[in-house]
Design a protein that fits this description.
It contains 20 helices and 14 strands. With 434 residues, it is of the alpha/beta class. The strands form 4 sheets. It has a 6-stranded mixed sheet with strand order 1-3-2-4-14-7. It has a 4-stranded mixed sheet with strand order 9-12-8-13. The protein has a two-stranded antiparallel sheet with strand order 5-6.
Length: 434
């Protein structure tokens, strides 16, 4: 039976459709499943990549294997733009009749989608799934809310330290082994090569700043009884903020320019030969390979505060979830396993460079592709995740942490003042989310 694959409508049309659907639909809906059909059509929404064809080929193969196992089942796949996912998925939660059976979603969206009643608890099936035994604990945390599992991790992404081997050789520099050495090395590069940023940093680069907080023993928030309280204003977190903020200045990355920079800006600066170092992800590899520094860089884990320590990195990535409204729950869960299983993740790494969420599969790909090794080491050392609260979406979208960093590096507020203000905004968001 022929499968249907669709690329979603243009972004503007989706935005309009998403807002219209959300405006017309009630804020909550009875999105419970009606039955559990063992035949028929399953609809899947996956994210559209810049170069989507390789991803489509891998998905087609997984879907074909699924359809072969389930006679009478048919799969339709739509690829939707990431930028408008929130409106489209929210509309689907509010109108179960038009909703897909499965969705790909960003792992920071899990708690919000659970609060909205959109995702099905698949904990029982996940626990009995053989592949899941090798799931990285942090990746599993990204599908877990309140002790229940709401999907399967699809891929994970972490950041490490990219550095220019030619610059380090010319200046006689050693690879930094501690956070203090990292900061000192960045300033040495800037002093000797003033046309370069020592370490490209950005006031809007939240996920590049988080390791500084975590390495100093800080946390974004603490959890008790299912409720979260901001910890960004505690002494350990303040030390991390101070360390990151110390990189903004004429002696490394001038605040007038770098305060506004985000993660993509820092990678662009490094790839174009304008920085001696940058904090980038495994997903940044191809962009740097395509840049001016190809063949003249290396990657190591971002150092912690003590020699031998690796700074904890944010574990980003995407998941696959079954919607609570699916009328094909059993089939949908099996399709979830096909799309997020070990074999599909192997193929997605080959096709897209997506880092697998299974520890044994990651070890396999690291042996075959050496550039992956620093990122695997970073994950193995213990990556971190954002608070599993629906309030995180509001904190993220309202730029609470970037604003805090920018206020400090511009000199508008002291670290204490900015951290206190950010903590209050975070606590308000956590309380509003319930």
């Amino acid at each position: 039976m022929k499968r249907i694959v669709r690329i979603a409508a243009p972004t503007a049309a989706l935005v309009l459709a998403g807002f219209t659907a959300s405006a017309c639909a009630p804020s909550t809906a009875d999105n419970g499943a009606q039955g559990d059909e063992k035949r028929g059509t399953l609809r899947v929404w996956l994210f559209q990549e810049v170069d989507n064809k390789p991803k489509e080929a891998v998905v087609d193969s997984a879907v074909a294997a699924f359809e072969k196992r389930h006679k009478g089942a048919r799969v339709e796949v739509d690829y939707i733009p990431v930028d408008t996912r929130a409106q489209k998925i929210k509309a689907a939660f509010n109108d179960p009749k038009s909703a897909p059976d499965l969705i790909e979603y960003g792992n920071t969206d899990t708690a919000g989608y659970v609060r909205d009643g959109g995702l099905a608890d698949v904990g029982k099936e996940f626990a009995a799934w053989e592949d899941a035994e090798d799931t990285d604990p942090t990746a599993q945390q990204s599908v877990t809310v309140g002790g229940k599992v709401y999907g399967a991790p699809l891929f994970v992404g972490v950041r490490a330290l990219y550095y220019r081997t030619d610059v380090f050789t010319d200046l006689g520099l050693e690879v930094p082994r501690t956070q203090a050495e990292l900061i000192g090395t960045a300033k040495k590069i800037r002093k000797e090569r003033p046309e370069l940023y020592g370490l490209a940093v950005g006031g809007a680069y939240t996920y590049g700043a988080m390791p500084f907080i975590w390495a100093n023993g800080g946390e974004l928030a603490t959890e008790k009884g299912g409720s979260y309280t901001s910890a960004i204003d505690r002494p350990e977190a303040r030390r991390g903020i101070e360390a990151y903020a110390s990189l903004f200045g004429d002696d490394n990355c001038p605040a007038a320019k770098c305060a506004e920079m985000g993660g993509n800006d820092t990678i662009t600066a490094f790839a174009s030969g304008r920085a001696g170092m940058a904090i980038g992800g495994d997903f940044s590899h191809q962009a740097i390979e395509d840049g001016k520094v190809k063949g003249e860089y290396a990657v190591v884990p971002l150092p912690g505060t003590e020699k031998g320590e690796i700074a904890p990195a944010f574990a980003g990535g995407n998941n696959i979830g079954v919607l609570k409204s699916s009328s094909h729950r059993t089939l949908a869960v099996d399709l979830m396993k096909s799309l997020a299983g070990k074999e599909t993740q192997r193929e997605l790494f080959k096709a897209m460079g997506f880092l697998p969420t299974y520890t044994d599969v990651r070890e396999e790909v690291a042996r075959k592709e050496p550039f992956v090794e620093p990122f695997v080491k970073t994950l193995d050392a213990g990556a971190k995740f954002v608070p599993a609260s629906p309030g995180w979406a509001a904190i993220d979208s309202s730029l609470v942490l970037p604003t805090m960093f920018q206020e400090v590096v511009r000199g508008d507020k002291s670290v204490d003042e900015a951290a206190d203000d950010a903590a209050k905004k975070m606590d308000d968001a956590f309380r509003s989310a319930g």
